[in-house]
Structures are given as structure tokens and as C-alpha cells.
Amino acid sequence: MPRSAEPGTKGERTRERIRTAALASFRENGYDATTIRKIADELGMSVGATNYHFPSKNHLIQELYLDVQHAHRAAAERLLKTETRLVDRLAIVYATGIDQLTPYHAHAGEFLSAAVSPRSPINPLSAESADSLEVVEGLFAQAVEGATPSGLPDDIRALLPRALVLAHLLLALFWVYDTSENQRRTRTLLERGLKLLGTALPLARLPILRGALRDMLSLVTEVRA
Amino acid sequence: MPRSAEPGTKGERTRERIRTAALASFRENGYDATTIRKIADELGMSVGATNYHFPSKNHLIQELYLDVQHAHRAAAERLLKTETRLVDRLAIVYATGIDQLTPYHAHAGEFLSAAVSPRSPINPLSAESADSLEVVEGLFAQAVEGATPSGLPDDIRALLPRALVLAHLLLALFWVYDTSENQRRTRTLLERGLKLLGTALPLARLPILRGALRDMLSLVTEVRA
DNA sequence: CATCGTTACTGAACATGTTCAGTAATCGAG
DNA sequence: CTCGATTACTGAACATGTTCAGTAACGATG
User: Fold this and answer.
1) What is the CA radius of gyration of chain A?
2) pLDDT digits (tens, 9 = 90+) for B45-89
3) Residue A27 in contact with residue A21, Cβ under 8 Å?
4) What domains are there in chain B, each with its CATH number?
5) Chain B residue with minimal CA distance to A191?
6) Which listed site, A109, A188, B131, B137, has its alpha carbon 20 to 30 Å from B124?
7) What is the pLDDT of residues A117-147, one digit of tens each?
8) pTM exceeds 0.90, yes or no
9) Distance (Å, whole) CA A214 – CA A205
10) Cβ contacts, strand C, under 7 angstroms
């Protein structure tokens, strides 16, 4: 008999309590200062309990990423309805992505360090995070598909979403190191980069460039953790 | 009275012993499997001794990076004497840089994780590693300066070394994730990227592009850990 | 060579993520 | 309601990087 109105099995409820407490602490105190002992203490349970529900600290971070990505999707999809030009649509996806990260900038380095190892399950390029990354890649695919016909060659068009999501990871990397007020530099970089893309992408139709670009994209998009 | 023919004070000799043992272990076992306790045991001293000579494990890694960078400089400078075209000279600096990393590829993720945090003293972009990075930036400066006059605008030319060294860091990042045989993909990416640069860079003379490029470069080269 | 301040080192203690053998709670079947 | 198996949890133990109060060794000076 469940003690309260909360649904699910006991395990599910405990798992949710841990999840909530951990995410709150990550947001407030960052990665390093969030220790499983503090979380366990706060919830009046033992250290082993958290590891029973989440095999490792990184699995808790995974939950945070999922939250962020769902928020990203929601924010981006809402705005995508209002734009039709490709570059503007990309601007939406990139900008809303950075928006979601903003609250974590103070501790971004800690998170990056945990995420960057190819062996880490929370590496965006890892097999374990494939679903997660697919959410964002899907956003870029949506942005590309829904754009007014740009005359992009099909092969380039097919490679674009993956390349754009990798660019997003690079932008996020830049953002981590961005010490300017409110990460203004990152926004400026995004603006200028997209402007450049807007003038350069149409050139992809030229046969010579098209081949080189396709080779480059197919090489880069093969990257995996 | 020094026990052997080794020079320096006792402290200097001990420091050197620790350094040598640590670097050997890093090369052989990687970052994680190299514990200060193992090093201390191997040398018949206590854990505190290593921390007396090197405040932290990362300071030991710093030594490894210095080694790598000096080897990089030696290898690059030797080859630079044989080439005059800008792109070929850049190819030398990039390729010899990756060459130095090659022995560490098996454990590259561990090292990356330790180095990537903006707070880490071994972050290439940190103040503590400024000297180290300057070595490589100097190589790129050399490569640019020694090239046959390319008609590059002065403002672009001035920003180039810093931008090129950042590109090198990105290439190294790609290399970490490169699972292809002997990191062949990284070499291919380098080739294609340089080829692209070779055809695109002359366009930097056009006034319109020049302004945009300069803005972009000056934005990116401001990045610091 | 004796003294003594400096340098070098010791080893225990701490915090932390993780593991695991053992125990308790839960819950469906009978 | 009882039983037994599954699920949930406990808390001690381990490995590790780091700190630090205390101790030993060194080496310049008188």
C-alpha cells in the first residue's frame, strides 16, 4: 500500500526522490560539490541506496542532460513554427540550445570534464547517449527539412543534421570557456557563423565544392565516442 | 655529499626520479592507472613525498606535456627548413604535433578529461599552461612568417598563429575520438582541411571577406580557460 | 666539527565514488 | 493471512588524490 498519493512502486518513488534531489543539487552546487553522501543524508538513506537506483554519479548526470534536452526541444519546436528561412531556423535551434545551458555556466567546466571522456556514458557521442543526441539531431533535421527549398544537393542535405549537431557541441564547448558577460561572445560567434553559413552554403551547389564539402562532412560526421 | 654522480641538490634528484617514474607510467598505463601510491611504492618513498615535489597529480601531467611539446618543436623545426609554401609548412606543424600524441592514443580520453576543465592547471588554455601553449603558437608563427609572401593582409596575418593553434587543439580533440586504424581519419581531415584553407585563404584579400574573417578570428582567439 | 635553520620526507587522516555481502521490506500467490 | 521470492536498502570496506602535523636529513655557518 503506497504511503501517499504518489504513483508507482516503492522503488520508482525512491528513484524519483533521488533524481529530484540530485538535479537540484547539480543546478545549485555543480558537479563536484554534489556528493552522493550529501544526497543520501538529505534523503535520510544510505549511500548504497543511490547506487542501487543509479549505478554511478554519471548516471545521475544523464538525467540532467535528458531534462535539458527535452526543454531544448520544447523551446525550439515552438519557435520553429514561426520561421521558414534555413539560417533563421538554425539560429533558433542553436540559440535555444545555449539558453538551456545558461543556468549551469558557473559549473560548466566540471560537467564538461565528466562528459568529455570517450569512455564516459554521459559523453554525448557515446552509445549510451545516442538517444539523447538523436533528440537534438532531430531538431536540426526538422530545421533543415522545414526550410524553404534552398536548392541544396541531397547528399549534402543528408549529412547536414549530423554535422550541425557536432557544430552545436563545438559551440557548447566554446560557451564553456566563454568568460564574457552573459556569454555574449558565444552569441556573437553564433550570429557571425550563421551569417557566414548563409552566404557560403549556396556555393555548395557548385560541383567542385560540393564534392569536397561532402567528403569533409562524411569524414567528420563519422566521429563517435 | 651526493651519493652518486648525479647533479643537483637532494631535492632536485628526488624530483627527477619521481618525474621519470611518473612519465614512464603515464606512457605505459595511462592517467587513471598511474596512482601516486604506485609511484611512491616503486621509488620506496611515501605518498607525501610526491606531493611535496609535485603539488598534485596534474602537475606531473604538466611535465608530460612539456616533454611532448619540446619533441614537437624539435620535429617541426627540423622539417620547416625544407618547405616554403604556407600550406605545406602548416602541414608540417600539424602533422608533427599529432605524431607526438600517437603513443598516448590508447589513454587519450583519460588525459583529455583531466585537461579539459577550465580550472585545471593543465588545460592548454589556462594561465599555468600559457608558456607551454606559446611554444606551439610560436611554431605556427614561424610557419606563417617563413612562408613565401602570400599577400595576406597584416591584420589577418597577426591573428593567424593563435587561430591555427586553436585549430590544432580541435584537431587533437578529433584525434582523441578517432577510432580508425592509426587515426587515419585525423590525417585525412588534416589534408582536406589544409587543401580547403589553401584555396580559401587567398580570398581573404577581398575587402568584404577580410572584415568578416578578421572579426571572426579576433572573436575566437580571445578564448581562454 | 657542532649548531640550527631550511629542506625533504613520513604516514596517518580525510573526502569521495564505488562495490558488495548481508538484511529488511514488499508484494503476489496460495 | 502466510510464505517465499523478488526488490530495496544498509553500512562497512576499498582505492584514490590530497592535506598536514610531525620528524628526519641536509648543509651552510661559526
Assistant:
1) 20
2) 999 999 999 999 999 999 999 999 999 999 999 999 999 999 999
3) no
4) 8-54 (1.10.10.60), 58-220 (1.10.357.10)
5) B216
6) A188
7) 999 989 999 998 998 899 999 999 999 999 9
8) yes
9) 11
10) A 1-2, 9-10, 34-38, 47-48, 51-52, 55-58; B 9-12, 14-15, 40, 44-49, 51-53
